[in-house]
Write a structure and sequence with these properties.
- The chain starts with a strand and ends in a 5-residue tail after the last strand.
- β1, α1 and β2 form a beta-alpha-beta unit.
- The chain is an alpha/beta fold.
- Strands 2-1-3 form a three-stranded parallel beta sheet, with helices on one face.
- Helix content is 22%, strand content 27%.
- The protein has one domain.
Length: 55
């Protein structure tokens, strides 16, 4: 399953957690991006979008 993880992260902590989550998912096709650099979600089967504390 191709998965996109998108995080809002001012200092990089949330992005680091997003990458950590992606490494632990049971499938291999996982991409993690800061919201400013995220590609279109149209090519993904699952999108995880985290904006808590968004700036």
């Amino acid at each position: 399953m191709k998965t996109l993880i998108v995080c809002a992260s001012r200092y990089g902590s949330t992005l680091e957690i997003g990458r950590w989550i992606g490494e632990r998912l049971p499938w291999t096709e996982t991409d993690c991006f800061a919201i400013a650099y995220a590609p279109s979600p149209a090519d993904y089967d699952l999108v995880i979008y985290r904006l808590e504390g968004a700036y």
